[in-house]
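Reproducibility note. Readers wishing to regenerate the assembly model reported in the main text can use the exact inputs given here. Chain order matters: entities are listed in the order in which they were concatenated for prediction.
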Amino acid sequence: MSILEPMVPTVLSVRRIPAAHPDLLRSYGADPARHASLGLVTCDQDDPTYVALDEATKHARVDVVFARSFYAGSAHASGRLSGEILGVLAAADPDEVDEGLRALVRCLEHDACFYRADDAGTVAVFPHVIASLGHYLSREAGLAPGASMAYLVAPPLEATYALDAALKAADVTAAKIFPPPSETNFASAWLAGELPACEAAAAAYAEAVVEVARRPRVDRSER
Amino acid sequence: MSQTRALVAALRAKLGAADPLPPPGPAAKIPAPPHRVFPVKHVPGSYAEKAARHTTALVGIGHVGTRYATDVVLQFQAELAVAHEAVDTVLPESWAASQGLLPLQSRVRSHREFLLRPDRGRRLDEASLALLRARADKGVDVQPILADGLSAVACMGSGLELVRCFSDACRARGLTVGTPMCARFARVWLEDEIGAEVRARVAAILLGERPGLGTGDGLSAYLVFEPRVGKTDGDRNMMSNIHARGTPPPEAGVRLATLAAAMLAQQTSGVALDLAPLASELGDAASRKPRAPQRRVRLVEVKR
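Running the prediction on these inputs yields the following structure tokens for the assembly.
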């Protein structure tokens, strides 16, 4: 194996609730007045799933009412099917939920994924570019739907070092920065800008993570 | 491929981690196709070339690609037309009498019937039979019969000359020759009935042969010993291709007389006739050597 190969996420479990109980709807953030059906999914990679949930809102009239990562990631999951995230789609009818789930799974299988930052696959990086935001991430990031965004995730030091490189590489602004630790002990950032700028930033981010993975310790200035 | 995957793949390539396959080598040099494929230059084998010189048959005519050359096709069509024309020609009813021959006719009444009913062409009609009984010499050694057969053109062409040469050659051998006669709409086996009527010891019918390509004027001769109705082809000796480009009539007349004399001497004909003693008399015909070089008569000339 070599660097920057995709680590394709595994969708662990999928369920649909055609007519959910109002109490359940309310407790997971849905509005019983607008939502009747729920779609549930767990996956072994959380950040690709956030992207895939957002993707679902572009393909169906669904809302992402709940999406939470689990502590310490999928290597320390509560069960075989827990993974590291539970995502919940809500819609007015089950067909919309089905359509949303199809888009979500398609995105996880063919698009969003972590990449190996070193040969052994012990360092992962998520330099994802979203060309056009859906309702979910645009609301979370405070950006307009349809805007471009670079969704960048890496382990703590790598993420910090690479974020600096990404911000300097292109004309982008930080929409949100999540310093470590996240629930899964990663660090992430959402950068806004034109699509080419987002792509340049993501490439610089991935390159920087690879560089750290190759030479973890640079103890003194090399000047 | 998704946008981000393409982006990362490009980055991999930039970092030198992409594509485990070695770079492709230089392309092999492909020679240019030949400028022209057809026609292939025709180089006949020496054997075929030599053999073709000894026949007028359609061999050694070459080809252009997968087809015949234009002049070969035109020549073929012209020769086929000559053959058709010869088959279609009808011997005029008055021709035999005008040439001083005893005019006979088979039971056939029309040219179409002649082509479709060979059996009727093998027997004389009543009028001819009466004429034959009244006018023909009887008890002769050889009875020559000129006939139209399948080519009236040949009959009217060199037919008379062949009859004369044959008769002269027979007389030269001391044989008696019957009254010269000409049969219309005749098939080969008509000689059986005529020969039997005149009590000839050998009957010889000389008739136009089935036209081939370019030879509408060929004559054949069929000789039979002790002719009578019921003789088969196994009882006959024949000679074909009697025309200017094959065996010329004077030469053919001599050979036929030799054959007739042999029949009288051996008292048989056909398969039973032993031709071995005749080799010296038949000359070229008995030889096993190739024929003298032949030349095709060109009916069509193509300007090159």
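We highlight two features of this model. Chain B has eleven helices and six strands. Strands of chain B lie at 102-105, 142-147, 181-184, 202-208, 219-225, 236-242.
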